[in-house]
């Protein structure tokens, strides 16, 4: 059972900064921040989970069934991630590419302490065993009365590319051959940037990344020595009661400091047929995935190819919804949609086979999902993009970017889109 304590806070921005720094003492942290973005599907301003009582960590073998058993047995809030390579549990696929990070392929924990922020309200949800610490924790956070232990940074990372421009062009040409032969319609092709032997202090890097991006699905995750610093603009899947919501992104354009030029860039994206066709293909794929568990006739496209503006880029987003039976297992709903179509392509299985053959790294948590389940079986997960991943014991840092390759793709433009998406990650790392 959990005890609740509610407080009103005058300066939520300062409280958010303080609570995340306070949390660094724990081995397990998931921090989810909507950065003030508000729409009909926004769940909260921020949500923090720390200090696992129980946990599940596994590879892809039977992973979704293991997660289903764990979620049902715990019957409480659980937080964690699903790596992209759980595709191997869903389909007859494998993952043989290089893995510099070596994270578990699935990890969830039941936190002793949860802190939820909504407006000026801060709600503490603590398990009974630590409920007597709610008031003292609130006072400590509010007064910054705790010892900060976030470490020190040593030098700048020497960032390398897993593949170079010519090889990227060659692989995109092979993908286009598959498209022209009718094997696939679209593939999300990704590349890795990495650094070895780097001592990084993750929290300040996350704070800088979040400050320049301000995305609606930001995440700071620490699981012992493994870190995710995520500035994702994309929701994978949300469940509230019997309603399921997916909001795939396909279509990207740069921002400009000149308001007139910025407005023109946005209008150009809205009318860009290549970008719209990418988005529509993935919407069709999402509709098909949702239909596996949806009530008949309930799958609806609420919003198609709407352009939203973020700090770094304009993005084309669609919203697809459906209804499910009240007793539909939440893990099964996710499994039927996993991995998300925006990070694979269409048809999904063929796209994933080509991804495995042509990409030079194992995606792991990148293009997977981070989020939570509630005791009622509701859930909300983002798409892990625009993210820095770091294994502190190996001192290995990685960030990956990709773009959708279709019949209308120009390899040079796709390469430039990847560099645009990588800009924020490189910028914050170079500021070290």
TrEMBL record:
Boundaries of every Anthranilate synthase component I N-terminal domain copy: 50-116
Domain called Chorismate-utilising enzyme C-terminal: residue spans: 165-421
InterPro entries, per the entry: ADC_synthase, Anth_synth_I-like, Anth_synth_I_N, Chorismate_C
The organism of origin for this protein: Maribacter flavus
Matching SUPFAM superfamilies: ADC synthase
PANTHER family: AMINOBENZOATE/ANTHRANILATE SYNTHASE, AMINODEOXYCHORISMATE SYNTHASE COMPONENT 1
Name the record gives this protein: Anthranilate synthase component I family protein
Pfam families: Anth_synt_I_N, Chorismate_bind
